Amino acid sequence: TFTFSLHCLSLLTCRQSVFTHLGHKSLIRHIETIEAENPYWLSMPYMSRRAGVRPPRGAQGRAFEALKAARTSKFPPHRFIADQLDHLNVTKKWA
After folding, report:
1. Are 4 and 24 in contact (CB under 8 A)?
2. Can you tell which superkingdom this protein's organism belongs to (predicted)?
3. H/E element holding 4?
4. Is the pTM of this model over 0.70?
5. How many whole angstroms separate alpha carbon 84 and alpha carbon 89?
6. Angle at 11 between CA 6 and CA 15, to 5 degrees
7. pLDDT by residue (tens digit) across 26-56?
């Protein structure tokens, strides 16, 4: 038998697992298969360049703008500190 410390895959037991030589070769073959497939999947982007640059301007865009306007209309108007403290600036003289 081949003893192999497998902490990542045996998270439930958190101890050393006994691996057979056949299991080790199978794991290596599986990892090599995944590594061979990676360039293929990375060569095909999920979105086109145009779709990645700008969101669609159709009905979804209009619906989002309507939703954004509805949410911002619920907010009270902005309050400025100059308006709040304007009553203190009556004469602007040191007395």
Report:
1. yes
2. Eukaryota
3. strand 2-4
4. no
5. 11
6. 55
7. 999 999 999 999 999 888 877 777 767 766 5
